[in-house]
Amino acid sequence: MIELEGVPELIDPVMVAAFEGWNDAGDAASTAVAHLEREWKGEVLAALDAEDYYDFQVNRPTVWLDGGVRKITWPTTRLSVVRVGGEKPRDLVLVRGIEPSMRWRSFCNEILGFAHELGVEMVVVLGALLGDTPHTRPVPVSGVTSDPDLARTMDLEETRYEGPTGIVGILQEACTHAGVPAVSLWAAVPHYVSQPPNPKATLALLNRLEDLLGLRIPLGELPEDARAWQLGVDQLAAEDSEVAEYVQTLEEARDTAELPEASGEAIAREFERYLRRRDIGPGGHATESGDTSYLRDPAGGRTRPPKPVRPETGDDTGPRTRPTAGEGNDGANDDAEGPRDSAEDAPEPPDVPDSPDSPGSPDS
Fold first, then answer.
1. Pseudo-torsion of CA 343, 347, 352, 357, nearest 10°?
2. Cα–Cα distances in Å, from 81 out to 213, 295, 301?
3. In this predicted model, what pLDDT tens digit does every residue of 211-264 receive, in sequence order?
């Protein structure tokens, strides 16, 4: 039995999880949960035993010095709690780690054990995948669930995917079978600029999480980072006519397919988000910002994201750790809950190599 001491009774808690690896293109999902931990000053309350779930030849531990003393950080999954203040305060249980190498069912059961002990009312798992989407347009984020009732009440898609899946899909199904409402949010990352970080995709996931939970998330420098990232990719594309032409083709396809995005419903969602950011309720009344926490601030700095590295031309001889778009069943959208683009309708990308993906992918 899981026993957690020293944790106060939580208010309407929701668990938000993300895992590095196959389900985390551009590190967008794991960075989103890290942002929530940093902005709301989360303190780790539990960690899973790394020996049970990780192959250390795939996800290696790191050695570091603390005042001259050598210490080891083991790859694992950690849980923290943050309190979101305001007119209607609530708590978030944040789960951040690496996709496990083994014993996925036991892994999910342990996560669900913590959820039960903490009284979690819903689980939201964040993911990111590679797709045929232009970097110049808003990042597509899909919200999906296996629960028909939840899909109807929260305006989500009911997943119909069949095929290979990652820990995001497994955890969502484990929640469903355990009777815990579960949702996954998926951001599509341009496959031609897949190197992390991708602050624009991280920002899109946080905006969608705001809409889903009705929260006001402090964004810090993320909007500025997202603009700088896009400008950096714009400059790289402008230097290569083939890449620029390919991006234009993606833009035209996206604009044609997503004209309904300018609907009144989309505008209403954006306006509600604007009100939350100004601490104004839908009725026009001021609310408390309430970004204080009852947990201490963990140590750690913050670095600005670098501009994306332009891939060199030539043959693709480097390792590939995540499938790219347009490769059949191994394509960008082959996770269980991700949005699915048509590979047949997607334009052919320019003849440039894929860049190696982030560490921790099952294929690395």
1. -40
2. 16, 8, 20
3. 999 888 999 999 999 999 999 999 988 888 888 888 888 888 888 876 655 555
- Alpha-carbon span 36 to 39, nearest angstrom: 5
Which of 111, 126, 120 has the alpha carbon at shortest distance from 181?
120
Mean pLDDT of the chain: 77
Reported in sequence order, the residue ranges of the chain that DSSP labels E, i.e. its strands, are 14-20, 43-47, 62-66, 69-73, 78-84, 90-98, 122-131, 141-145, 157-158, 182-190
Q: What is the CA radius of gyration of the chain?
A: 20
Residue type, 4: L
- Residue 59: DSSP 8-state: S
103 is written with which tokens?
A: 């014993």
Predicted confidence (pLDDT) per residue in 2-45, tens digit? 556 667 789 999 999 999 999 999 999 999 999 999 999 988 88
User: Is the peptide bond preceding residue 197 cis, with omega within 30 degrees of 0?
Assistant: yes
At residue 285, the 3 state secondary structure works out as coil
* 3-state helix/strand/coil string of 171-198: HHHHHHHCCCCEEEEEEEEEHHHCCCCC
Cα–Cα dist 227/224, whole Å: 5
Q: In what order do the strands lie in the sheet with 90-98?
A: 43-47, 78-84, 90-98, 14-20, 122-131, 182-190, 141-145, 157-158
pTM, whole model, 2 decimals? 0.71
CA 356/CA 269 separation, integer angstroms: 36
DSSP β-ladder status, 78-84 and 43-47 = antiparallel
**Can you give the length of the chain in residues?**
364
Which of these, 46, 51, 56, 58, lies nearest to 22 by C-alpha position? Answer: 58
Tokens read off for 269: 């969602």
| Pairing mode of beta strands 122-131, 14-20 | parallel
